[in-house]
Design goal:
This is Allantoate permease. By secondary structure, this protein is mainly alpha-helical. The chain is built from 21 helices and two strands. It has one domain: MFS general substrate transporter like domains (Growth Hormone, Chain: A).
Length: 511
């Protein structure tokens, strides 16, 4: 995507604020010597890992910037998508397993399956914040690969499940180990991209979910042909083979995740990713767009005070409310799709193949809507498209028509809250809180379809229709809230305030 930001005789001048229409905000904040000197002191005090690359006078051409963004997409965004692929492989295995004899072999019913999903989500939720604290202390480049390898071992162990208690235990362990992975990965991405670029990259990141669903379904189709091989059911082979794949990706991730743009040179990558000029471009374009990104170094722990400040930042609560409510309607249709198709008479192989169309539709709409949201600088209104998209699909399900077109705009909340957090410390916590909100919604959605409502869950779909309408209302509320909030900014507030992060009144909330 071509960057339309203004250039001055070839000089790169990334926007200082998400609201580029404000004439009172300098395109390059470091042109003001007072602001430059202030942030030099901030970076030195924080021991920001890229502070030696900071250059208020750095320049680059538009062509050079395009090339560096492409290089970032190749090295950073692509591998982030591959790592997210590994998460979805292990999170989604259970859906392929139930298309076989999983429930029958373990003597489980729909309510038991709901309980397992709830245990997973509660464990996932409880691990979000601790995982983010660990990641900020030791670095996402170390913690994320460790998570991947640990949960892959548990995923493989599911091949040996014998009953309900073992099922619940492994769901709890998976939740604890996978919790925090998404905000940890978003934090790592934010080290390389500007806040304006991040949403589109997160849409690629989330498109990996659909690609994973398609690939996982095709893999399941093939793996189920191993049914009975060495005396193992097909679903046991699914856990074993896919867990092994994730383990391999986790090991490789230790070598493909640098701690920062300035730390790509190492014993196994002697030349690093960037030339000196490219490194200057990567670092300074990010800092000019968001100078506060250098306010912490990438091995700096979150203090209790920073934690409390992020928790009480009520200006981010509208996004958290969206995270809880807006994704409930699409949860049960997606989670129970394989069971619904089996109940309609499709066999194991066709059931897995019939889940592919929803993944294809998801990819097309996700990237398209993300591009439009950035082009028009609108988030709440485009996020509301999810509810508008999902509503007819749920109505169709209520009318006994199996539709697989529900979309997923959870990335909107994560990118949105990252953009509105306004510094690294707040961003680390708010990303985890946002994901916790999404998991709360997931817990609710996992308990809407009940065993006595089979096979088409008509009562559950009626509840989903009502929640879907509420999500539209919440999107409109968030839009109005941030529009009004932005009207109370003060031009000189930056020089005098003791507030931090999104509480600073010269900060523009994205809406």
């Amino acid at each position: 995507m071509t960057d339309k930001r203004p250039k001055d005789n070839g000089k790169m001048i990334p926007a200082y604020s998400p609201n580029k229409t404000d004439p009172n905000i300098s395109a390059n904040p470091f042109e003001d010597p007072q602001i430059r000197d202030y942030y030099v002191g901030v970076y030195e005090k924080a021991k920001y890992e890229c502070r030696h690359v900071f250059d208020a006078e750095a320049t680059c051409t538009e062509e050079e910037e395009k090339k560096i963004v492409k290089k970032l997409d190749w090295h950073v965004c692509l591998w982030a998508c591959i790592m997210f692929f590994s998460l979805q492989i292990d999170r989604g295995n259970i859906n392929q397993a139930v298309s076989g004899t999983f429930l029958k072999d373990l003597h489980l019913n729909t309510n038991d399956f709901n309980l397992g999903h709830t245990v997973f989500l509660v464990s996932f939720l409880l691990a979000e914040l601790p995982s983010q604290l660990v990641s900020k202390k030791f670095g996402p480049d170390r913690w994320i690969p460790t998570q991947m390898d640990l949960w892959s071992i548990v995923a493989m162990s599911q091949a040996g499940l014998r009953g309900k208690h073992e099922f619940l235990a492994t769901r709890a362990l998976l939740g604890m180990l996978e919790g925090g992975f998404i905000p940890d990965l978003v934090l790592w991405l934010s080290y390389f991209y500007t806040s304006r670029e991040l949403p589109l990259r997160l849409s690629f990141f989330w498109t990996a979910l659909s690609i994973t669903g398609i690939i996982a379904s095709l893999l399941a189709f093939g793996i189920f042909h191993l049914e009975g091989h060495h005396g193992l059911a097909g679903w046991r082979w699914i856990f074993l083979i896919k867990g092994t794949l994730t383990l391999a990706l986790g090991i490789v991730s230790f070598f493909l995740m640098p701690a920062s743009a300035a730390q790509t040179k190492t014993w196994f990558r002697l030349k690093g990713w960037f030339t000196d000029r490219e490194l200057s471009t990567v670092v300074n374009r990010v800092l000019r767009y968001d100078p506060r990104k250098g306010g912490m170094h990438n091995r700096q722990a979150i203090t209790p005070r920073r934690l409390w400040t992020a928790l009480e930042d009520y200006d981010l609560w509208p996004i958290y409310m969206l995270g809880i409510i807006c994704f409930i309607p699409q949860g049960p249709p997606a989670y129970y799709l394989t069971q619904i198709l089996r109940n309609l008479g499709f066999n194991t192989f066709n059931t897995n193949l019939l889940t592919i169309p929803s993944g294809v539709a998801h990819m097309i709409t996700l990237i398209g809507v993300t591009w439009l949201s950035e082009k028009f600088n609108q988030r709440a209104l485009f996020a509301m498209l999810q509810a508008i998209w999902t509503l007819p699909c749920i109505i169709a399900l209520r009318a006994r028509t199996p539709v697989t077109g529900a979309n997923d705009f959870r990335y909107f909340c994560r990118a949105w809250v990252s953009r509105n957090s306004n510094n690294v410390g707040s961003r680390s916590i708010s990303a985890a809180l946002c994901n916790m909100a999404v998991q709360l919604g997931g817990i609710a959605s996992a308990n809407i379809d009940r065993d006595d409502d089979k096979p088409l869950y008509k009562r559950g779909n009626q509840v989903l229709i009502g929640i879907n309408v509420l999500s539209i209302v919440l999107c409109l509320y968030a839009k109005v809230y941030y529009v009004i909030k932005n009207k109370f900014e003060r031009i000189d507030y930056t020089y005098n305030t003791t507030d931090t992060a999104s509480r600073q009144l010269d900060f523009r909330f994205a809406h």
